[in-house]
Write a structure and sequence with these properties.
Helix content is 77%, strand content 0%. It is built from 10 helices and no strands. α3 packs antiparallel against α5 and α8 packs antiparallel against α9. By secondary structure, the chain is an all-alpha fold. The protein starts with 8 loop residues before the first helix and ends with a helix. The radius of gyration is 21 Å and the shape is elongated. It has a single domain, classed as Orthogonal Bundle (MetI-like fold).
C-alpha cells in the first residue's frame, strides 16, 4: 500500500459513466439538481416576500428575524428532522437549502428595492405608471444587481451544502467524500472537490452573465 498513488486516473475513466448510481455523471447530475432547485425556488419565493417587506415596512423586521433564525439552524439538524417526513430522498436536502436561499435573498430583494432613487419612482408615477407596472418596469430592474449579488452567494453555498447530504446518502458528489474516507482511497474525494469547485465557478459565471444581459445600462455607463 505504500506505493499506492494518491490519485488514479483509471478510477475516473472506469467510473465516469458506468450506468451505476454512483458514477461520476449520475452524481454530478444529482448534485446540479439538488443545488439548482433550491436556488431557483428560493428566488421565486424571496421576490414576492421581499416586495411585501419593502412595501409594508412593519413586516420586514419580524420576517428578517425569522429568516435569520432559519439560516442559523445547522443543515444536519434540519436533515435529521425532515427524515421522518421526506425519508432518504432528495427533498430532505432541497427543502433546507431552499429555506437558506430565501433567508439570503429576501433581504437582498428589500435592499435592492430600497436602493431605487426616490426621484425615479416619482418620475414613474408622473408618467402614469400603476404601482404594479412601476414595480415590474422600474423598481425590479434597478434592483437586479443587488438581488443577483445575493443569488451568487446562494448558488455557491447551495452547491457546497449539498455535500452534507452525503450523511443521509443524498449528497451528490459529496458521496465521494464518505466513500473516500471509508475506503481510505482519496481519488473519489479529489474528483468530488474538483467538480464541486468547477460547478461553483460555472454557476457564478452564469449569474454574472445574466446580470450583464439584464442590466445593459450598467455596461453603457462604464464604457461612457
Amino acid at each position: 500500500m505504500d506505493d499506492e498513488p494518491l490519485f488514479r486516473w483509471s478510477w475516473v475513466v472506469s467510473n465516469w459513466d458506468n450506468d451505476t448510481p454512483n458514477s461520476i455523471v449520475n452524481l454530478l447530475q444529482a448534485h446540479i439538481v439538488m443545488a439548482g432547485v433550491p436556488t431557483v425556488l428560493g428566488l421565486l419565493l424571496a421576490v414576492p416576500l421581499g416586495v411585501a417587506c419593502a412595501r409594508w415596512r412593519w413586516l420586514y423586521q419580524p420576517t428578517s428575524g425569522l429568516m435569520n433564525a432559519v439560516y442559523a439552524l445547522p443543515s444536519i439538524a434540519l436533515f435529521m428532522l425532515l427524515l421522518s417526513v421526506t425519508g432518504f430522498s432528495r427533498l430532505t436536502v432541497i427543502i433546507p437549502l431552499t429555506l437558506y436561499a430565501v433567508a439570503v435573498l429576501m433581504p437582498a430583494v428589500v435592499d435592492g428595492l430600497r436602493s431605487v432613487p426616490e426621484h425615479v419612482r416619482q418620475s414613474a408615477v408622473a408618467m402614469g405608471f400603476t404601482p404594479t407596472r412601476r414595480l415590474v418596469r422600474v423598481e425590479l430592474p434597478i434592483a437586479v444587481p443587488v438581488v443577483l449579488a445575493g443569488l451568487r452567494v446562494v448558488a455557491v453555498s447551495s452547491i457546497s451544502l449539498v455535500s452534507v447530504g452525503a450523511l443521509i446518502g443524498q449528497g451528490g458528489l459529496g458521496n465521494y467524500f464518505t466513500d473516500a474516507y471509508q475506503r481510505d482511497f482519496y481519488t473519489p474525494a479529489v474528483v468530488g472537490i474538483a467538480l464541486i469547485v468547477l460547478l461553483a465557478l460555472v454557476a457564478d459565471g452564469i449569474i454574472v452573465g445574466a446580470q450583464r444581459l439584464l442590466t445593459p445600462w450598467v455596461r453603457a455607463r462604464r464604457s461612457a
